[in-house]
Amino acid sequence: MKVIYTDALVIGAGLAGLRVATGIKDRGHDVIVLSLIPPKRSHSAAAQGGMQASLANSAKGQGDNEDVHFADTVKGSDWGCDQDVARMFVNTAPKAIRELANWGVPWNRVRKGKREAVINAEKVTITENEKAHGLITSRDFGGTKKWRTCYVSDGTGHSMLYVMSDRSIKQEIEIHERIEATALIHDGERCSGCIARNLITGELIAYIAKATTIATGGYGRIYKVSTNAIISEGIGTAIALETGIAALGNMEAVQFHPTAIVPAGILTTEGCRGDGGVLLDVDGYRFMPDYEPDKKELASRDVVSRRMTEHIRKGKGVKSRYGDHLWLDITILGRKHVEKNLREVFEICKYFLGIDAAKDWIPVRPTQHYSMGGIKTCYTGESPTLKGLWSAGEAACWDMHGFNRLGGNSVAETVVAGMLVAEYISEDLEKNNNVSISTALIEKFYNAEKEKIDQLLNGNGTESAFELRDAMETIMMDKVGIFRNGDDLIDAVNELEELYKRSKNIKVSYNSSASNPELVTAYRVQKMLKLALCVALGAEQRIESRGAHAREDYPERNDRDWLKRTLATWDSDDATLPKLDYEPLDIMKMEMPPGSRGYGKDNIWHHPDTAKREKEIEEIKSNMPNADRFEIQKALLDYPLPNKYKGKNERLIEPLS
Amino acid sequence: MSEEKGRLLKIKILRYDPKVKGSIPEVKTYRVKEAPGMTLFIVLNEIREKQEPSLQYDFVCRAGICGSCGMIINGRPSLACRTSTKSLPVEIRLTPLPVFELIGDLSVNTGKWMRRMSERLETWVHDKEKEIDFSKIEEKMDPDKAEEIYELDRCVECGCCVAGCGTIRMKEDFVGAVGLNKIARFEVDPRDNRTHDDFYELIGDENGVFGCMSLMGCEDVCPKDLPLQHKIAYIRRKLVALKNK
Ligand SMILES: Cc1cc2nc3c(=O)[nH]c(=O)nc-3n(C[C@H](O)[C@H](O)[C@H](O)COP(=O)(O)OP(=O)(O)OC[C@H]3O[C@@H](n4cnc5c(N)ncnc54)[C@H](O)[C@@H]3O)c2cc1C
Known about the structure:
A: 657 residues, alpha/beta, 7-stranded mixed sheet, 5-stranded mixed sheet, 36% helix, B: 245 residues, 9 helices, elongated, binds flavin-adenine dinucleotide
């Protein structure tokens, strides 16, 4: 049995994992990072559009600050987020982006003077402040009041990930590539590392650590068509679930992005619409203003995706052999802009559609895109139920996105959470230095993994892993999609449960225990089915509509009964369904009590506490007539932050003395 | 999207797993019915799922962004995920990228090679490690400069340029166009304090910028259309002065 010891283990080498690892190493602890692939190939590299941080440098960002970013984030989440965490996030995002600028990310900069832009399908002239020349600029994104999304052309994630990865090389962080964590080691109270499999040799390795962080990204690939990388299969999330102790939060909260190309499902960034692109129907008609006269194409993602689906259902989609789609038109932005600022989009259209995006319309359709749900953590990033287990990035339900995440808030979350969680882990390592773990416990988990693999290779199963995966993806797509209803969801749960039972009887036809893609699919599909069940059952039980979770049979948001987070656990190996519990969100502690998001007509069942808290907030404010925005904010919500990151953020109009 | 007639593609794959005792390299042929919009990503998955479950290859983003799926396609290093079958003849020959350690079939260990390159060339901004207060407004940068850096920052480390490089066949330790492009990227970055002398230390020899024989193999195959030869020539001009000093 190969055993490797370290202070901190980080599973996942995307933006979140690497930022956690570098932070811990900076504090002088040993850290090992595991990754399925070379770090720079992680899915973070695919983020095109940008990162939100309220720098307020660009003309259209004037007046932005943490408070505006906070309000957008909470509204965007349909009040499902944790407001403490959202506050921690918005205060740290400007620091995160400035840190990355210092480390080498070539953020696009403000250019003083007049420039042309397209807003609401019209050419306008924007004049940039001379003082801001050379500072980090920003573009418009959906669901934000100000232009807040900072970017590097449309390769933002790529540049961020390369800088983070090169920084981890500089810090001599050990990264074990092509190693897959397949089980967490724990004693029911504390997590002590994981069992991992070398994807080249098939060797099993026990990694023992005082702190284990899961930063494995989202679980989009339980759906048939997804913008996610094919490795976004949620295995890290699943191994946390399989402990039976750690809970997954809000798994039913799954975001669909309005504009992925048809049929490949590859994303064209929200920056297309942010920069002025519009959506057209079969008649070439711009339909979004009819539905959302105010924000139009730049309403929140969940809203635009639903409006598009509604419009297609009215027969206004463009027919194709791959089903109906709509058009994204960015030709109005001009060739220069498309080829430079939206180059990835241009390339994707060229290679995958054979079209010229500067001249042709792009066939698009809403497609699975982001996993708001994940491993439930408290604000420190640690699981509240399984000590020593931490999570950050898309894998986590930290929970700043609630039921819908804003574009640009995700890569921002990865680095911000990375910075903060690294501090909390380091503090914990410094306090709990002598955590011991018995060899018997390691052996128990090691042998269990070995047996599972033996069973798949040599057992007398009959099921095909590829077929089961295919069936799961189709069910999720057809029955747990953008619009949901009770009947379909019940069917989905039953069918998935059946598939899950069948997955215990998989036979792998290629019998090598070394690199064996079929074997990998086999053990992953067993785990993915558990996640799919958490999503489907969570969606079936939640009889309201909130953010990306839209029930046709329960179209109203119901704060009275459903202002709570779903917590899913998987009790035992014999279980075939997750267990769901609920954790209420306390309105009386909210800085921003639930209100309207301002889309369509209001359809909310209010909670009695909402009015109470609103009144209380009014009183608090009226008792502080001379207070500034920071003092008022603190009086409403006094949120935690590591000392290192507590400082105010400087802006041109808010100089630090 | 045009309607291809559905040719019967003949996919010839060089198969070899060095970990399997007694395994010898052999070309195996698979037949796949062409479908509209088909890419090699779709072809290879279909072969794995329906004909050859042991087939090894690497895809991650499948959108031409992450650089995982470099392979030799009918003699030319390219990204498989964004290569459409329509652009190829009926017979498609796939072999793994040379130079890199072979994992099995079409899967090679570019990660290991690239990490060594990064360590060797120290591909990060070298500053004075001054304590920066990130609460303060960021340092300014000329907007054109930022765009110039990004132009060179777009490399996805796919390894195609290395596979297409004539020099590296003769000089195993040659840093390749990917490495020289990194130097060019940090050379234009005002945040990096390294001088030309420092860069000379790293690449001022036959394994670096003076090793390139300008065969152009790299630039021809770069999937991101990076101006590799131009940049190599630029760096060489800058450093040649130091060489003759
Ligand atoms: C096409 C696309 C465009 C996007 N654009 C934007 C954008 O413009 N702005 C924005 O804010 N967000 C964007 N997002 C979302 C954002 O990119 C992701 O949410 C974010 O990058 C996730 O980062 P991460 O570090 O959490 O995970 P990832 O980057 O997905 O990294 C996961 C890591 O975990 C490893 N891993 C997984 N499982 C295991 C295992 N079992 N064992 C070991 N290692 C494992 C992988 O190897 C990988 O290194 C986009 C997403 C997509 C799909």
